[in-house]
UniProtKB/TrEMBL annotation:
<dbReference type="InterPro" id="IPR036721">
    <property type="entry name" value="RCK_C_sf"/>
</dbReference>
<dbReference type="InterPro" id="IPR050721">
    <property type="entry name" value="Trk_Ktr_HKT_K-transport"/>
</dbReference>
<dbReference type="Pfam" id="PF02080">
    <property type="entry name" value="TrkA_C"/>
</dbReference>
<feature type="domain" description="RCK C-terminal">
    <location>
        <begin position="141"/>
        <end position="225"/>
    </location>
</feature>
<protein>
    <submittedName>
        <fullName>TrkA family potassium uptake protein</fullName>
    </submittedName>
</protein>
<dbReference type="Pfam" id="PF02254">
    <property type="entry name" value="TrkA_N"/>
</dbReference>
<dbReference type="InterPro" id="IPR003148">
    <property type="entry name" value="RCK_N"/>
</dbReference>
<dbReference type="InterPro" id="IPR036291">
    <property type="entry name" value="NAD(P)-bd_dom_sf"/>
</dbReference>
<dbReference type="InterPro" id="IPR006037">
    <property type="entry name" value="RCK_C"/>
</dbReference>
Amino acid sequence: MFKKSKSNTTSYGIVGIGRFGYALAIELAKEGNDILIIDCDEEKVAELREYTENAFVVKNIDKKSLQSTGIQNCDVAVVCIGEQLDTSILTTLNLVSMGIPHVISKAKSAEHGEILEKLGAEVVYPERDMAIRLANRLITSSVIDFVQLSEQINVSKMKIPDNAIGKSVIDLNLRSRFNLNIIAIEKSGVVSNTVDPHYTFQKDDVLYICGGRDSLTQFSDWLYK
């Protein structure tokens, strides 16, 4: 049975080792977190024992089986089951009822997500979110990456456009003109989150901009008009 070994780290339980769950488990383990893994596939579980000794083969994911692994001792539980909606919903319900502080569930559709939210889980849409990030990178050639935190809060990482080189933060005036905030500037590979309003942008600078998606689109249109 899993018991948290490091008091200063967050422990994660991951149910379902498809491509999303597998990648999530490896990244969390690399960061030194305690992780517990549950799946019905013995081969997948065996592969991940390289990263954690708390990897369990569970054929029938019911409440009793989940409790036997000790997942209720985790700080966060992530349900990575997407295809089997009934199993996803029942597993989420069981984890929430165990009193785990933070339950996150992967959803395949808006309807699936609505059910999971009503059960008390935070819902993620990996395929949709990846599509949004890719679309924004394709639409704007200067965008290096794009992360949607919510419908209202998005963070865009972008190369400084040519028509902004030589201008200061005040000159660009993104807050007043587009309701956007520059939250960090990367110069020569060094990121600073202290933004001097008098800083003059130079070639190869990278901006981290936060704001609504419509505001980011308006800013992009302004750059390339």
